[in-house]
Amino acid sequence: MPQTQCTRCGYSDCAHYAQAVGVGEAGINQCPPGGAQGIARLAAITGQAVRPLNQTHGAEGPRALALIDENWCIGCTLCIQACPTDAILGANKLMHTVIPEHCTGCGLCIPVCPVDCIALVNVSGIAAGWAAWSPAQAQHARLRYAQRQQRLADKNPDPDPITPAIDATPALDNKKSAIAAALARARAQRKI
Questions:
Q1: DSSP 78-116
Q2: Quick check: pTM over 0.85?
Q3: Does domain 64-123 have CATH number 3.90.550.10?
């Protein structure tokens, strides 16, 4: 797998998709970042016939990089939370930026951005699918993802089953209010 961790295959990450392919629960043609060459590689490993990419999961394309328009970033941290490789640097209420060598171009940061200040740009030219990824890039992305998963596990170990869950509704309402206020400020700035 190219290790974008983009979830477009329908699984939570590349490893879960690979496991599903291995046990026959998923087709070998569900990884747009891997493209036709990725499908051919999976066909060779699994002994299945090569077939076209399932377009319901997306289209094969070039390797991308997320870019944040720092003039419009409101510092909500939602993109930071969504990034599977910790490629976004920033702090609450301060602008964020993408660390290019860590970004897999998964696009998971785009739908969570409340001010639409993130765009994907082509960084591999005409190379698309598997050809857009070097083995070193895939290994680096896999390592970054594993480190993030470990950091999150260390930060939030499984809750004690005896301890009652805390109602997060007030915190969520506060966050929504803060984002709504930031959006209003950003819209007002755009009109100036």
A1: HHHHH-TT--EE--TTS--EE-GGG-----TTTTT-TT-
A2: no
A3: no
